[in-house]
Design a protein that fits this description.
Elements (H helix, E strand, L loop, with lengths): L1 H43 L2 H9 L12 H11 L11 H14 L9 H10 L6 H17 L2 H9 L11 H9 L8 H9 L6 E3 L5 E3 L12
């Protein structure tokens, strides 16, 4: 009996070792593919010109013109540890992985605001491991080049709010017929949650409604 137990323990140990080697090999492969994807992206649009390109847009809203309620709401919804991490948040990634394992889906990504900015300006929205790795490389580099305030500005001026609105200025005008600086607290909170559910459309004086192809529960408003 003891002999069989030793054989079984060795077999389990061997299988775990093989699995570990496979995981390391996969991580290295995706990491290398992601790095090459990242290098190609920044060659096309150098990081040094990213802020200049975004601030040159007619609809750009600087940080000091954003309502504090909107800033606080975005950080609460998107990245509560934004001021503490350096572009990638291991704690958020660990929580997302655990949530995905429990749900059996890839609904949680653990992306920081900086990673989402990198994804929006450099990469596609498809969920691929190589793209995720590239996003991380870009986020780490963005944090080296820009302040948190500049990163936040670039993020809120490029994200998609649904209904054809890109950036907070277009969203404020498109949904509430006002400029970003004049948003009420309630309007600011609504806009902070919309990028999580861009298929939700708002009608003046009405609650959230689903745009064609979606439902009012898609993504959910926080």
């Amino acid at each position: 009996m003891k002999f069989l137990f030793r054989i079984l323990r060795r077999l389990v140990g061997y299988l775990l070792g093989v699995l570990l080697v496979a995981l390391i090999a996969a991580a290295a492969t995706f990491g290398w593919q992601g790095y090459k994807l990242y290098q190609s992206a920044v060659q096309a649009t150098p990081l040094e010109t990213l802020y200049q390109n975004i601030t040159a847009r007619p609809s750009f809203v600087p940080y000091d013109q954003l309502p504090q309620t909107y800033i606080d709401a975005v950080l609460s919804v998107e990245d509560s540890r934004f001021v503490h991490h350096h572009g990638v948040d291991p704690l958020a990634i660990a929580r997302a992985l655990w949530a995905d394992l429990r749900s059996g889906t890839l609904a949680e990504g653990g992306s920081t605001i900086t990673q989402q900015l990198a994804k929006n300006v450099y990469f596609t929205q498809e969920k691929r491991m190589a793209r995720k790795a590239a996003e991380m490389f870009a986020a780490l580099d963005i944090e080296k080049h820009y302040s948190k305030q500049e990163i936040f500005e670039m993020y809120v001026n490029t994200i998609y709010f649904g209904n054809g609105c890109y950036g907070v200025a277009e969203a404020a005008e498109g949904y509430f017929k006002t400029d970003a600086a004049s948003l009420t607290d309630a309007q600011a909170v609504v806009l902070a949650g919309l990028p999580q559910a861009p298929r939700i459309c708002l009608q003046p004086g009405a609650g959230p409604q689903a745009s064609p192809g979606g439902t009012a529960a898609d993504g959910g408003l926080p």
